[in-house]
Amino acid sequence: MNDFISVNLIKLKNNKIPNPEIDLRILLNYSRCTKNEIILSNFNKNQINIKKFNSLLKRRILNEPISKIINKKSFWKDNFYVNKFVLDPRPETEGIIEEAIKLCKNNKTHFKILDIGTGSGAIAISLAREFENAAIVAIDISEDAIKVANKNIKDRNLDKRINLKKTTFENIQGDFDLIVSNPPYLSQKEIKNLSNEIKKFEPKIALFGGKDGLDFYREFSKKIDKNLKNGAHLILEIGASQFCDCMEIFRDSGLKFIKKSQDLQKKDRIMIFSKI
Ligand SMILES: C[S@@+](CC[C@H](N)C(=O)[O-])C[C@H]1O[C@@H](n2cnc3c(N)ncnc32)[C@H](O)[C@@H]1O
Description:
Layout: H1 3-14, H2 20-30, H3 50-61, H4 66-70, E1 73-75, E2 78-80, H5 94-103, E3 112-116, H6 122-130, E4 135-140, H7 143-155, E5 162-166, E6 176-181, H8 188-192, H9 196-201, H10 204-207, H11 215-223, E7 228-237, H12 243-249, E8 256-262, E9 268-274
Parallel strand pairs: 3-4, 3-6, 4-5, 6-7
Antiparallel strand pairs: 1-2, 7-9, 8-9
Helix pairs in contact: 2-3, 5-6
The chain binds S-adenosylmethionine.
The site of S-adenosylmethionine has 23 residues, from helix 6, strand 4 and helix 10.
């Protein structure tokens, strides 16, 4: 193996970076100054900008996730721009899109969708693509997150279909056929025990759900009924151990619990309600 490759692989390994070969290849390609894709086995130093590579490697060694370094994270059928102001969209959240597709079999329906806490805009954009006649409102309380969502929406020419607003769910007007949300739901204890990758590089506003993690659900369950049409649905992501608490919280919400769905680890992660 080329010396440059082995020295840098060792640096990543010594710093306990998982999947060092994959990360090294991504960083090399992100610093390349040639057209062709770089592969480790026939690497040549002339293919990259060494200064750029060294600075990216240093960031990775300090535990910054690859997605934040290259400003790109894949979700559902797309790659989204991400930065330190938005949570990286995660595979378990794709369950929201799957459930929406199951609920609304006719993808040509003209319906109104609200995405609460849109972050990068990944959910709103994926739904806009799956449901070509849906009108979507996407909201977030973070000004910086709104800028990221705006970039992702504009890059895809979806700004006529997705109405982006900096606001909190308490201020939402109008009634919707479908409301989706992946809110902040980590407890104080869970925040303390997070890996450095998440603790240092994901925005706290996207993660922290109050002392027991359930603050958002408590407030939301009292108010959301008025924003749903009769027969409309709510699809909500929850933390891996929050199903029973959320059932209790939503008991008096005026909504009917329909079903839950699990992530790949078989944890309950999505709850679906309807307004009768
Ligand atoms: C867990 S992140 C979800 C981001 C994105 N929807 C996703 O699934 O990848 C939660 C988002 O909710 C936003 N948020 C937190 N409290 C909110 C509130 N009361 N109203 C609207 N957005 C809120 C945060 O700024 C953050 O972007």
